[in-house]
Prior knowledge:
Shape: elongated
Distance between the termini: 27 Å
Number of strands: 5
Structural class: alpha+beta
Strand content: 15-25%
Helix content: 25-40%
Largest sheet: 5 strands, mixed
Order of helices and strands: HEHEHHEEHHEH
Radius of gyration: 18 Å
Number of helices: 7
Amino acid sequence: VQTALDEIGEVGALKLLDVIEHLVQPQQLLAALSEWSLKHNEPALVVSVPNATHFDLGLRLLCGRWVPTERGLLDSTHLRFFTEQTLNRLFRRCGWRVVARNDFSTLRTDQYDAELNDALPTEMIGALNVVARTYNPNAAVQQFVWTLKPFPVATPPTTFLQAVGDVAGPVEEDSQ
C-alpha cells in the first residue's frame, strides 16, 4: 500500500469505505497509513464501518439468530465487527483521531426480522428498545462514517486484541 501511495502524487484524503471489517489485521494497515500520512502533508482518512451494536442485530442475537448474508451488516466476508468503543480504540491506538462524524442511522437495517418482531409482544420490543437506547446511543446507527487526522504513536499495536481490547496502552498524541 505504501508503495502504491508513494507512486501517486499529492493525496487530498484517504478513503476506506467498508474496508477494515474485511481485514484480518486492520491495525497493520491503519498504523502504516497514519505513518505515511504524517510524512505526506497529513491527508485525512475517511472511513465507513458497519455498527455491530445496531438494535436489529442485538435483537436477533438475543434470540439466537446470527445469520450471515451476502451484503449488509452481517456480510459473510466480514472478518471483524466493531462497536463505537472498539473502533475508537483501533483508530486511536493506530495513530488516528476523529475530527468529524456523520454516522448513518436507520431504524430498520437488512437485519430487521419482521417475523421475529411480529412473534414478540409489542411491549417487549418497546422495552428492549428503551434498554438499547439507554445503554447504547448508537442503537440506530447502521454505519459509522468518520473523518480522522493522523498523529504519531510510539508503538502501534501488533495484534488485533492490542488494537481494540479493553486494556490500557500508551498512546501519544501531539498537542494539535
